């Protein structure tokens, strides 16, 4: 019996329900019904504009990331779906700091709500560095269904691995 390895910290009763749907082969169809439509944010430029619009709406005082791009190196098995890094460079006598957001390329093929979830997650790191209560409150402020989307994304990753693996 396969285990749902992307659900390690969820309550056992919830994992058992998901496992039953997974084992019965019903989970992929359920997720396709819930999230039927792909999105058209396919290029790095479109992704930058998408993230910039979210930032402008919810984090007006936060600095705009200098780069936002899809990254083929981000992978759930390596533990990353996205990163928010700060890069410091010396320019003349000053220290310049830039933020970069990199989102796993697999989000190109996912439905828009999953892309929104990972974009909100990485944008929240502009204000809150740690995954603490304040961080998740900010995520839920920007995307009220954040926790459900994160759970559904984890289910989707398990289904994808079964199909691809």
Give, in spatial order, the strands making up the sheet with the most strands.
1-3-2
The amount of beta strand, in percent, is: 15-25%
Cα shape: elongated
Number of helices: 6
**What string, H for helix and E for strand, traces the elements in order?**
HHHEEEHHH
Q: What structural class is derived from the secondary structure elements? A: alpha+beta
Topology at a glance:
Elements: H1 12-23, H2 27-34, H3 44-58, E1 67-71, E2 82-91, E3 94-104, H4 112-124, H5 133-142, H6 146-164
Parallel strand pairs: 1-3
Antiparallel strand pairs: 2-3
Helix pairs in contact: 4-5, 4-6
Written overview of the protein:
This protein has 165 residues and is α+β, with helices and mostly antiparallel strands. The chain is 47% helix and 16% strand. The chain contains six helices and three strands. A three-stranded mixed beta sheet has the order 1-3-2. The mean pLDDT is 90.
